[in-house]
Design brief:
CATH architecture: Up-down Bundle
Number of strands: 0
Radius of gyration: 21 Å
Largest sheet: none
Number of helices: 19
CATH class: Mainly Alpha
Length: about 450
């Protein structure tokens, strides 16, 4: 159904963005709900760790695999339709989970949830690009991602209370209703673009990095895949987000309960802390990227180093860590979530608007490809070292060692593609100054 483009106003832009972001909050609830119900799912379906991990692996595999088709559909059909269809699919998937009594039915439900989830975030980013000036895009993208993490709090607290206070069918049916509600409000409030582009508004300043010339290659998939900035986004998203995804989607909760011997309340509190930290750090990261678009990789390397140190600090010791140590650990992991959105900002500043959906989809695959591979690998390792399912810290130390592989591979990918992206920037007349040159310019402006 065609919907006429409304006149542009900043107030209307925020209404559209708010409605789309609310749909993304619901998507995060759907995405993370099984992660806090992992032990209950293992008992309900009577499955070992490898099979349990397949529920999340299938969901993330579908999510990652759908990014390119979703990007193509987004560029042709618009964000409003895709967000609405995604909400409907996730609602159907949660009803499927509510009444599934066998593994195949549950896996089919996770396919629906993964497919619906795949449509949402990149579509919201397209909404931001259409309704707001480019200078605001990094900050609003971060705010969107971090506000949506309220969905993780909803999963970790109210949903867990509902699950334990009622039953599996009731709790997951409520999530299905949430999906249908999101479908309704998206069709009511979200519009693809205003009649007047925001870049034509008075007072809007555009920088060279915001001008991405139209590509002579009319095939968006080939064009996005041949753009180094898309791949820099992919590897950036992977190196900062994959271990965060492993933790929040499935293995973080069991690790805290069994490996670190925390109570359920303590574990839920740490998940809530992660969400709050991400919500605070996200806008700071977004503002940094908006102010220093040519120095985004500095932040990527800093966050990657902090993540590696954080994981080593809990996996090298042979005894459970004190609570303050685990707080620092989850705080560091939490920063990886918003830092991964730098990858989508690379895609935004490297792809013309006609293939922005595909470029963003490619970048958005990174953390989820690394995530589902590691989730499955951790499950296999746990089944090998603890086939009875009675996991200990020693078992998790062995299983989580697989995280080293994507950390190394993705870091190399960032280094290689950063060089290639800077060559692309040079062809557009954008030169990344050396640090000393940039510092001299900064000092000149200050004085």
């Amino acid at each position: 159904m065609a919907v006429s483009a409304p006149a542009y106003s900043l107030r209307r832009a925020y209404v559209v963005w708010g409605a789309a972001t609310a749909a993304y909050i619901a998507a995060v609830v759907h995405r993370t709900s099984l992660g806090v119900a992992g032990l209950e799912a293992a008992a309900r379906f009577d499955v070992p760790a490898t099979t349990l991990s397949m529920f999340i692996v299938v969901q993330l595999l579908v999510y990652a695999g759908a990014q390119i088709p979703v990007g193509m559909a987004l560029d042709k059909l618009g964000a409003r339709r895709l967000i609405a269809v995604g909400a409907l699919l996730m609602g159907l998937g949660q009803f499927g989970m509510a009444f599934a009594e066998s593994v195949p039915v549950a896996l089919a439900a996770r396919v629906l949830i993964g497919a619906g989830d795949a449509t949402t975030f990149v579509s919201v980013l397209k909404i931001i690009a259409a309704w707001f000036p480019p200078r605001r895009a990094p900050l609003l993208g971060q705010i969107t991602g971090q506000i949506a993490q309220l969905g993780q709090i909803i999963s970790a607290v109210p949903f867990v209370v509902l699950l334990h206070g009622t039953s599996w069918p009731v709790a997951f049916s409520v999530l299905g209703i949430v999906g249908f509600a999101a479908f309704t409000w998206v069709l009511t409030w979200v519009r693809d673009a205003p009649a007047q582009p925001p870049t034509t508004a008075a007072g809007v300043r555009l920088r060279p990095i915001d001008f991405v010339p139209a590509s002579p290659d009319v095939r968006p998939v080939r064009g996005a895949f041949r753009t180094a900035g898309s791949w820099l986004g992919f590897w950036t998203h992977m190196v900062t987000a994959f271990s965060f995804n492993v933790f929040i989607f499935l293995w973080g909760y069991p690790f805290l309960l069994r490996g670190q011997e925390l109570s359920q309340t303590q574990a839920s509190t740490l998940f809530t802390v992660m969400t709050l930290v991400a919500m605070v750090s996200g806008p700071l990261i977004g503002e940094y990227c908006a102010r220093h678009p040519l120095r985004r990789s500095w932040l990527v390397f800093a966050v990657t180093g902090a993540l590696v140190v954080a994981w080593l600090s809990v996996l090298i010791p042979t005894t459970p860590r004190p609570l303050w140590h685990l707080v620092l650990f989850v705080v560091t992991l939490a920063v990886g979530g918003p830092a991964s959105l730098i990858g989508l900002d690379y895609a935004r500043t490297s792809n013309p608007v006609e293939r922005l959906g595909v470029g963003s989809g490619l970048a958005n695959m990174g953390g989820f490809v690394g995530g589902f591979l590691c989730i499955f690998a951790v499950g296999v390792a746990l089944d090998l070292v603890a086939p009875a399912g009675d996991y200990t810290l020693a078992d998790f130390r062995v299983a989580f060692s697989v995280l080293a592989v994507p950390f190394i591979a993705a870091t190399i990918g960032v280094i290689v593609m950063r060089r290639a992206t800077r060559r692309e920037y040079a062809q557009r007349g954008i030169t990344v100054p050396r640090v000393r040159e940039a510092w001299d310019v900064y000092r000149t402006r200050k004085h």
